[in-house]
Amino acid sequence: MTSHQSIALALRARLDELTRRVGELEAELREPLDADFAEQAAALQDDEPIAALESAGRDEIDRIRAALARIDDGSYGTCATCGEDIVPARLVAVPTAVQCAGCAGATRSHRA
Ligand SMILES: [Zn+2]
Questions:
Q1: Which of 61, 74, 97, 110 has its CA at 20 to 30 Å from residue 81's CA atom?
Q2: Ligand 1 centroid, distance to 29 Cα (angstroms)
């Protein structure tokens, strides 16, 4: 088994877990509001972090799906910006990385 295949296995397990968790968060967000106004206000406040978690989970699901697609098409582990190999240690730390550490750092400082 190549290292990318073992990363794919780990990513699929993570994807399953995230899909389940986002489903639970969605179910919680869909719960009808309590008739009591105070409860309603509290419930609305509670929904904000849940919505943030759900959206973060969806973002990660998208990144994992993209990484799995890159593993399938053989482009995984190659920097999308400079075309160099991404060092294995970085892929272990950030399995969904699309850029090498150098390019990711450069992108971050351009954005900042
Ligand atoms: Zn690069």
A1: 61
A2: 39
